[in-house]
Amino acid sequence: MNFKNKVAIVTGAGQGIGFEICRLLVEKGAIVFLNDVSEELAEDAAYQINTKGTIACIAIPGDASNIAFINKMVNTAIELYGQLDIVIANAGITLYGDFSTYSEESFFKVMRVNLGGSFFLAQAASNKMKLQSQGGSILFTSSVVGHQALKNLAAYAMTKAALEMLAKNLVIELSQYKINVNTVAPGATLTERTTEEKDYERIWSQITPMGRPAYVSDIAKTALFLVSDDAKHITGQSLIVDGGWTSVSILPEGIK
Fold it and tell me: What is the pTM of this model?
C-alpha cells in the first residue's frame, strides 16, 4: 500500500490505535494531520513520528466533537495541501455505567464525541472530497460492542452500532463522488489505557480464540487497507478485528 502524496486527517490519535495509524500512514508516504484533544499528546505524538527530520505529521490539537474545530481542521488541510484524501474518525470516549442509573450528562457526552464528532467530520470532509476528481476515503472506528453486548456499555455500544449504519447510509450519499466509507471494529486491544487494567492481557488472551488480544498494529494495518486504493471498491462495510472473539462471545471474568 502506497500513500505517497495522500493527505489524511486522523482524530483521537495522541496514543494507541490512532497513533499507530498515523505512524504507518507517514511511513508509507502520506502527509497526516494528527488530532488529539490533548495538546501535549498531539504535539508529542507528531514529534515521535517525525523522527527522521521530515515534517510529514502535523499536530492539530482540539476537540474533535466541536463543529467549528472540525471545519478548521478540514479547511487547514485543504489550504496547506490543496486536497484531502483520507479521513479517519477515531476519536471516541467510553463512559461505563449501569443502564438504570446512567446520567444524562454521561449519555450526551458519549453521543456528542462518538457520534457527533464522527458525523460532522465525515460531512465536512466529504463536502471537500466531492470537489476532487479522485474522491476520497472515510473510515469510522467502531467496536466489537457494536455487535456483542457487554454490561455497563449501553450508551457506548449504541454509538458504535450507529457508526456502522452511518457508513452504510453514506454509500447512497457519496459513492457517486468516488468516496468510499467503511468502519473498522476493534476487539480487545493492548493500548496505553488497557494495559493499566489489572490482568487485562491475561483475561483477554484466555477468551480470545487466537490466544491474545490485538496489538495496535493489527488494527492500524486493517485501517490502512480500508483507506488505501486497494480497497476503493469496498464501501459500507465493517471489518471486525478481534481474534475471533465475537464468534464465541465468552465474557471476561466478573461480567455477567
Answer: 0.95
